[in-house]
Specification:
15% strand; three-stranded antiparallel beta sheet; two-stranded antiparallel ribbon; 174 residues; 7 strands
């Protein structure tokens, strides 16, 4: 860390300082403190998991917070080799998507119709249903794909149960 902002800033519902950092290649820039902590390259997966856990526990109602976490986990999970740590990060990504979908459904935040959320819909990761149980929903195939890729991990049971309970929208009884 080269420098810290004098005053904290608020993004979504999170207030943190900005930090000017320098990467090993000499590039420097500013990062928001909510997704920052000391980083040991030999433990990057564990660091990413801890950041994800911390953010998932916040249960923020701000769409911007969930967009930020989805983008972060979507960016870092592919950098971790296949295995249990990769599975955990990808599972956190799906859980962050669920929180984003829920908060987009509960609010009329314009970001839910544009930008990163629209891109997630284009990629068929999220979808919007405007009949029956209307709202935003996570594509259940994401759950099953992850479950089937790691069926022997204890985490697979949790993912499978979540897939079976994942709302699909437009469903009705009777």
């Amino acid at each position: 860390v080269l420098e810290r902002s004098k005053e904290p800033s608020t993004i979504g519902s999170t207030s943190k300082h900005w930090y000017r950092i320098e990467a090993p290649d000499g590039k420097s820039g500013w990062t928001f403190g909510s997704l920052s902590q000391p980083f040991d390259p030999s433990r990057k997966a564990e660091t990413f998991i801890e950041l994800g856990r911390r953010r998932l526990r916040l249960k923020s109602k701000a769409v911007a917070d969930w967009i930020e976490l989805v983008n972060f986990l979507g960016r870092v999970a592919p950098t971790i080799p296949k295995g249990e740590l990769n599975a955990r990060l990808r599972w956190m990504y799906i859980r962050a998507l669920q929180n984003l979908a829920q908060n987009c459904t509960q609010t009329n935040d314009k970001r839910c119709r544009t930008g990163p959320v629209a891109e997630l819909q284009r990629k068929r990761v999220l979808h919007y249903v405007d009949f029956g149980d209307s709202g935003f929903f996570v594509n259940t195939e994401l759950f099953w794909k992850l479950h089937d890729e790691y069926p022997k991990l204890p985490l697979a049971d949790e993912i499978g149960w979540a897939a079976a309970r994942n709302a699909m929208g437009g469903e009705c009884e009777g």
